[in-house]
Design a protein that fits this description.
This protein is mainly β and 495 residues long. 2% of the residues lie in helices and 37% in strands. It contains one helix and 30 strands. A five-stranded antiparallel β-sheet has the order 1-26-25-24-23, with no helix packed on it. The chain has a five-stranded antiparallel β-sheet with strand order 6-5-4-3-30, with no helix packed on it. A hairpin with a 4-residue loop joins strand 11 and strand 12. The longest helix is centred in the N-terminal third of the chain and has 12 residues. The protein is globular, with a radius of gyration of 20 Å.
Length: 495
């Protein structure tokens, strides 16, 4: 997710309505794209509260219809099973990781561990308060990793916001021991240049590696000065995690990357990466890096090597995330137009901006290239009061040569879509709620929507954890695929 900013000047909350109104004006201008921040420290909007007992079954939408305020709607092949409302609805919920019977859900205030052994009745095990946006999260064994990308007074869970212009400010990776699910223990911190907006876990033999993505340097920030044209690599010894440390800062953009405006109006200047997805079984990674999409070799994890790089200076504003298909011959990149705070799923924005870009991987070895094929955007227009853009999703492991994924679209809800034919992607299922607000632009909706062991789990910014069941002939084979864990940005071999 993002905070592409303004990031380190965040010392207090910004009024969501004021900031969002400005974003909406910018987004509706005629420029080809607009690069603006993720939700950052904006406060979620409020709709009606749901019962923890479950979700009310909704209806299907008529073509062109926008549902009523807070109304639940979904396709006939999706069944809502359960919802656990946010413990603090004023705090933004973010990413999710899974291991065994547990889901680990991040938020700007820390993380929550849920027992999902019974998807129809998930239970809260514990909530850990450790503020520091955006708390991107991953797990492996007894270790949990959190990203802190907001300038803090120190590395403790009692820290307060502090300007990044102060040398003593801290941002980076926090490591917890989660052997006791009811009592996680904070055991180590690792400071990284420009913080850790996101991180990607690269599993290994004796060591775990974390690729730490961050961006937006500033000459006024002592620990985040330009150029910032690479990523931090953190090495974590499995038997001695408290010895975790930064071991490399590989340069991915020796030429500086996309220059952004005025050369490419409405496009983000590349000053680091937003998110990286690795495919360890193929020694591949795909990076979404502000103004660039990259494919790189990670056979030497401390020395990732760029194979190919692409730009889209017409329709992409901010390269946000990446997903490989199962055969590793395609990558889906997302464009977070409006940074997650804008209303971009409307007729004014159109079908190609704030969308997914589908790229085939052609060639072999160092001659592999990313070849653009098409865009995908949800076909359901949203209200101008709903923040909506392509966001975090995962593959549904159907195998058999089919490519299907589930994806979050903020207040656009959850979309299940197929891209087996790279040139003709299509939606096959959806779930969404009506607008949180009808008189002003609100902030809410699904931040992350992932498929894990037969169900879809969504961390909704304002509404909490949703559990959905998908019943469709095209995805039935995925129900036989059982995972011990899932960190979505560390893509497993499903078959």
């Amino acid at each position: 997710m993002t905070s592409h900013h303004n990031r380190r000047l965040r010392n207090g909350r910004v009024g969501a309505a004021v900031a969002a109104a400005g974003l909406l004006t910018t987004l509706l201008m005629a420029a080809p794209a607009a690069a603006t921040p993720d939700p950052g420290d904006l406060a979620p909007g409020f709709g009606s509260r749901q019962s923890a007992a479950g979700l009310t079954a909704g209806r299907e939408l008529a073509p062109g219809e926008i549902p009523g305020q807070d109304e639940i709607v979904h396709s006939a092949n999706i069944k809502p099973l359960a919802n656990i409302p946010s413990a603090d609805p004023a705090v933004i919920n973010s990413d999710i990781a899974f291991q065994g019977r547990y889901a680990y859900a991040g938020s700007y205030s820390g993380f929550t561990i849920y027992d999902i052994a019974n998807p129809k009745a998930p239970k809260t095990v514990t909530q850990v308060l450790c503020p520091g946006g955006q708390n991107d999260i991953s797990v492996l064994g007894d270790l949990l990793f959190l990203s802190t990308d907001s300038s803090r007074s120190d590395d403790s869970c009692n820290s307060v916001s502090q300007p990044a212009t102060e040398k003593s400010s801290w941002e980076g990776i926090k490591i917890f021991d989660i052997k006791d699910k009811k009592n996680p223990k904070y055991i180590k911190s690792v400071e990284t240049a420009c913080g850790s907006h996101t991180h990607t876990l690269v599993p290994g033999g004796r060591d775990i590696y974390l690729y730490v993505a961050s961006y937006s340097p500033n000459d006024a920030f002592p620990d985040c000065k330009p150029p910032h044209d690479g990523i931090s690599v953190v090495k974590v010894p499995k038997k001695a995690p408290t010895q975790a440390a930064v071991v490399a800062f590989p340069i991915l953009f020796p030429d500086g990357g996309n220059p952004g405006a005025p050369t490419n109006p409405g496009v983000s200047k590349t000053t680091g990466c937003h998110d990286i997805t690795v495919l360890p079984s193929k020694n591949l990674a795909a990076g979404a890096c502000m103004g660039d999409g990259i494919l790189f070799d990670i056979s030497k994890p401390e020395q990732p090597r760029v194979i190919d790089r692409v730009q889209d200076n017409v329709n992409f504003a901010f390269w946000h995330s990446a997903t490989f298909n199962e055969r590793a011959n395609k990558v889906v990149f997302t464009d977070e137009l409006g940074g997650g705070s804008g209303a971009t799923c409307n007729a004014a924005t159109g079908p190609n901006r704030g969308a997914d870009g589908i790229y085939d991987i052609t060639g072999s070895g160092d001659q592999r290239k990313l070849a653009f094929r098409s865009y995908y955007k949800i076909p359901r227009h949203q209200a101008d009061t709903e923040n909506c853009v392509a966001h975090n999703g995962s593959l549904i492991p159907v195998g058999g040569g089919r490519d299907i994924m589930v994806q979050a679209w903020y207040q656009g809800g959850i979309s299940v879509w197929e891209f087996t034919d790279s040139a003709q992607p299509k939606e096959i299922a959806y779930f969404e709620r009506g607008p949180l607000t009808t008189d002003k632009l609100g902030l809410g909706g699904s931040w992350s929507a992932y498929y894990y062991n037969g169900h879809i789990y969504s961390n909704d910014i304002a509404k909490g954890l949703d559990v959905l069941r998908l019943d469709d002939w095209r995805t039935e084979s995925a129900k036989w695929v059982w995972m011990e864990r899932l960190n979505v940005q560390s893509q497993p071999e499903y078959h």
